[in-house]
Amino acid sequence: MLIIGESMARNKMSLYGYALDTTPNLNRLFKNGDLVFYTDTIAPFAATNPSLSYVLTFASSGAAWQESLHVVDLARLCGYKSYWISNQHDVFVTKIASQRADISLNTAFDLPHKRVHFDEALFTLFDKINSKSSHNFFVFHMLGNHATYKKRYPDKFEKFTAQDVKTKTNSTLDDKKLNTIAQYLNSLLYADENIFKIYQKFKNDDAIIIYLSDHGESVYDESSSVMGHGFASRYTAEIPLLFIATDKFKDSHYKLWKRIQSGKDKPFMSDDLPHLIADILDVKPLEYDASKSPINSNFIKRNRVSAGVLYEKMK
User: Is 153 helix (H, G, I), strand (E, B) or coil?
Assistant: First the structure.
């Protein structure tokens, strides 16, 4: 499974050390040895369309993304039945991706019309599928944590408050901005729940989940006037990259799981994800480059640029 999140900032995840418990399910999976989180991954762009045009193709090898092998096609060439299940109004890049899949479902078209669905609607679509094969490649595209944050989660996930943020982070922001941060944190709590539910659906299978966000999000991190994405910033660049494995996967692919663990602190860019996926599938397509996969012994650190700015200059 590949889960594509939206606007998730890793500096607001308790899994990555944030003061409030925004990712309790992911924390528990990590403590149980079922999850590996990569600590130094950045996105190539700070917006969905340009970022995913590289994240989903081998374009980092040098060719234009339109001319590069797509990860959905890679999976199909390896004998996997492919599924694209989306809660996004697909932009050009993701629309092309969805058309490549054997089965493509979108909440905008395949469920009763609503202006916006919560991400749990993905499970309704998943449950519609009755033709799964022995080898399946699922892509779940979430609406995730995109503004407006309050609209991204049901009321029962209204846990964190402005006072919680102020107390735990010693913030000097005004109450309105603290409330916006609290709403963002609640959207993370809801995303944590949905990622865990996907894991539960496959926990008895030989399966691995890769989760990453298309880009990060700045939620008044740089200053009291900066919020959102679409601009160069360490907060819009830095993203979570997670691997969640079932017991059957860890038992059947012990050496591979150890390799995935070995890459967790390497400086990585998500536009090289297809090379990593190729290593997991144990295939070497023409555009594959072992030096771009952090689980490969030939991995080489590269200059990392996000939204046109050298990442090291953002710090």
Answer: coil
